[in-house]
Amino acid sequence: MKVAFIGLGVMGAPMAGHLAAAGHEVTVYNRTADRADAWVARHGGRAAETPALAARGADIAFTCVGDDADVRSVAYGDTGVLAGLLPGTLLVDHTTASAGLARELDAAARERQVRFLDAPVSGGQAGAEQGRLTVMAGGDPDGFDTARPVIQAYARAVTLLGPAGAGQLTKMVNQIAIAGLIQGLAEALNFARRAGLDGDLVVDVISQGAAQSWQMDNRARTMLRGEFDFGFAVDWIRKDLAICLDEARRNGARLPVAALVDQFYAAVQAKGGNRWDTSSLIQALRDE
To answer: Which of 2, 171, 239, 271 is catalytic?
Structure first.
């Protein structure tokens, strides 16, 4: 297919690369043009000067940017991606954003007879690079059927959860669950250290039982060593948790643990850990 990919950050660049490797004709746009030019030099395709020009002639346009404001900045106006899409084509937003924005984009797309999916992802930078992301989608079922085989170039699981907004709501569930899990793991490992136990040996044992998790398998040992210069940044999880807490205020859900963990992440930021991996929660428990 002819596809446009808007946003070439740590997630978007490898995702677009998998599309090119799968044989799709890819046109990219990035706010920093040098990054788009570097992507083209590596993967082929071409770079466009605006999101609208990237989307012109595309069957599907993908966006993967920072937050609600960033999505609006690339979606709307004469230079926005919606201006470049023809009726019957498809817009897929991979940004982790609000459910309200997803519904807003769905309505705007319908006005142009464009189909829309909100499709946030889980798996982090490593998942994007390895082509093993989990994609949670909401929106048009026909659009989903069109997008799914294309998205599978960089995903191991692609699921339609419901109408527009359902993908973003499911990503919120994901982030709420992860926040509590990482805090529990941080407290457990810090307890083991203070108890004088061999942390690595403890992890070897408890990872064989009910305490096992992806976070334990992939982050416990780096947490013990104080290594956090990789993965999903603290700034990003705080952005995501703010979305979760805002949605909870609307739907009445109680998120006491998520709200508390958000404040622990604020303490990590105060230590200079804005770009540390989310597993750096353990740093908020240490005296040094």
So the answer is: 171
Q: How does 156-173 read in b/e, with b if 16+ C-beta sit within 10 Å? A: eebebbeebbbbbbbbbe
pLDDT per residue as tens digits for the range 86-118: 999 999 999 999 999 999 999 999 999 999 999
Would you say residue 179 has pLDDT above 70? yes
Q: Which residue has the tokens 């817009």?
A: 91
Q: Are the C-beta atoms of 23 and 35 separated by less than 8 Å?
A: no
CATH class of 2-162: alpha beta
Residues 262 and 245 sit within 8 Å (Cβ to Cβ) = yes
Q: Identify the band that residue 66 occupies on the pLDDT scale cut at 50, 70 and 90.
A: very high
How far is Cα 124 from Cα 231, in angstroms, rounded to an integer?
6
Summary mean pLDDT of the chain: 97
**Domain residue extents for the chain:** 2-162, 170-285
Who's near 272: CB < 8 A, 6+ residues apart?
A: none
Write out the two tokens for 176. Answer: 């709420």
Is 171 marked active-site?
Answer: yes
Name the residue among 37, 24, 117 with its Cα closest to residue 8: 37
As a residue count, the chain comes to 288
Question: What digits encode the pLDDT tens for the residues 46-56?
Answer: 999 999 999 99
Yes or no: say if 64 and 5 are a contact pair by the CB < 8 Å rule: yes
- Span 170-285: which CATH code? 1.10.1040.10
- Measured CA to CA, the distance from residue 261 to residue 75 in angstroms comes to 32
Per DSSP, what are the bridge partners of residue 184? none
Which tokens is 239 given? 């952005």
The letter for the amino acid at 272 is: G
Q: In degrees rounded to 5, what are phi and psi of residue 287?
A: -80, -30
- Tokens 């109680």 identify what position? 254
Coil vs helix vs strand at 217: helix
